[in-house]
Structure formats: C-alpha cells, structure tokens
Design brief:
about 5% strand, 4 helices, mainly alpha, two-stranded antiparallel sheet, about 55% helix, Arc Repressor Mutant, subunit A, about 80 residues
Length: about 80
C-alpha cells in the first residue's frame, strides 16, 4: 500500500500558513530573481499564459495586488527564500 504524498511536495507553506502550489512557487521564485513571464516560461518549459495563471493564483492566495506585492509577501512570510 502506498502512502499519500507529503503536502510539502505539492505546496509551499509560509509562516502564516498560506499555501501556494509548487508551480506557483517556481514562478514567484524566478520572478523574484527578475525574470519576466516569458523568460520563466522558457526556463520551466510551460507557456507564458500558464506562468501568468500561476502568478495570478499566487497573488490571489497571498492577497496581493501586483506581482511585486506577491513577491514581497512571499519573501516576508518565508514562502520563498
């Protein structure tokens, strides 16, 4: 019998308990490094609209107004490091 995958494998949780998906984490991490959505799409091998969708999802979950705001919250709450 196989056990269920660990939630940390699919989600990244910050100090306040906010959760974002692993892919949203990847997108925010690259964005925090100064990469554009297009550059992130090339790096991750996904389409630019998919990158935009993941960042929008992270923004909504973090209560952020902009991508920069989402990055700031994710850094402050130690979701991304």
């Amino acid at each position: 019998m196989r056990s269920a995958p660990c939630s940390s494998a699919r989600f990244n949780v910050g100090r306040a308990g906010r959760r974002i998906s692993a892919r949203a984490y990847d997108c925010l991490l690259w964005a925090a490094g100064g990469k554009t959505d297009w550059e992130i799409s090339i790096i991750l091998g996904i389409s630019k609209p998919t990158v935009t969708k993941h960042i929008l999802s992270a923004r909504e979950k973090l209560g952020a107004v902009t991508k920069a705001h989402a990055i700031a919250i994710a850094l402050r709450e130690m979701i991304i490091r």
